[in-house]
Amino acid sequence: MCINVGMTDRIIRAVAGVGLIAYGLVVNNYIVAGIGAIPLLTAIIGFCPFYPLFKLNTGCHKES
Question: Above 90 in pLDDT, residue 56?
Answer without folding.
Answer: no
